[in-house]
Amino acid sequence: MGLLKMMVTAVIVGVVRGRPDDAPHPGYSYPVPPPPAYGPPAPAYGPPAPAYGPPAPAYDHPTPAYGPPAPAYAHPTPAYGPPAPAYGPPAPAYAHPTPAYGPPAPAYGSPAPAYAPEPAYAPPAPAYGTPAPAYAPPSHDNKGMPYDFAYGVKDDYTGNNYGHNENSDGNTVTGEYSVLLPDSRTQIVTYTADHYKGYIAEVRYEGEARYDEPQHYAPKYPVPSYKPAPVYGSPSA
C-alpha cells in the first residue's frame, strides 16, 4: 500500500515536471532596495520674531477744559397777540343795473351781388408796319463851311519835325502833312477829299535814307548872376 502511493506520487511529479510551459526559475532574486535612511530635512529656521512691538503713543488727546457756552439770554415772550379785525367786508352800495334793451334787429337784408358786366372788347388789331424813317437821308447838296488850319513842330533836341495844313472851300478839302522818319527821310502826304470822289492821297519822300547816331543837344540855361550881399553900418547912437 505504501509502495503504491509512492509510485503514484512519482508518476504525478513526472507528469508535472514534463509540462512545456513550466520554465525553470532562476536560482537567485533581485535585492530589495533598503528604505531611505533619511526624510525631508526639517527647516533650520522659522520666521523671525519681531524685535519690537507697535510704538506706544507719546501723548494723550487733551480733555477739553470747557463745554459749550450757555446762552446769555432767553427768547423774549411776545407781549401782544394779533389785532382783532375792527371791520367786516363792506356791503355793496348798489345793485347791478338790469339792461333795458336787447340786441338790435338787423335793419338790412343781404346785399345783392354787384358783379361787373362781361368785357365787351375784342383784341386790338396789330397797328404796326415798317416804320418810316424819322430822319432824312444826308444830302450832298448841302454846302459845307469853309475853314483852314496849319501847325508845325521842329525840335532839334528830340529830333521831332512834322507839320500839317488843311483848307476847305465848303465842298472840297485839300491838305498836306509831313513827318521826319527815323531813316532821315521826310514823308509828305498831299490829299484831296469831297463827297463824290472820296479821299485821294499822294505820298512822296524827300532825302536819302541813312541811319546816323542820334544827336542830342544839351539844353542851354542862363548863367545865374549873384549880387554882393549888402553891408550895413553900425547904427548911430
Task: Provide a descriptive summary of the structure in words.
With 237 residues, the protein is mainly β. The chain has a domain at 147-206. Helices cover 7% and strands 19% of the residues. It is built from 1 helix and 5 strands, in the order H-E-E-E-E-E. Strand 2 (160-168) and strand 3 form a beta hairpin. The longest helix is centred in the N-terminal third of the chain and has 16 residues, at 2-17.
Map the helices and strands:
Layout: H1 2-17, E1 147-155, E2 160-168, E3 173-180, E4 186-194, E5 198-206
Short description:
The protein has one helix at 2-17; strands at residues 147-155, 160-168, 173-180, 186-194, 198-206. With 237 residues, the chain is mostly beta strands.
Strand content: 15-25%
What is the N-to-C succession of helices and strands? Answer: HEEEEE
Going by helix content, strand content and strand pairing, the class is mainly beta
Radius of gyration from CA coordinates = 78 Å
| Mean of all residue-level pLDDT scores | 76
- How many β-strand runs? 5
Low-confidence segments, given as residue ranges, are 18-22
Specify the number of helices: 1
Q: Main β-sheet: number of strands, strand sense, barrel status?
A: 5 strands, antiparallel
Span between termini: 210 Å
Q: What is the overall silhouette?
A: extended
- The strand order across the widest sheet is 1-2-3-4-5
- Give the helix level as a range of percent: under 10%
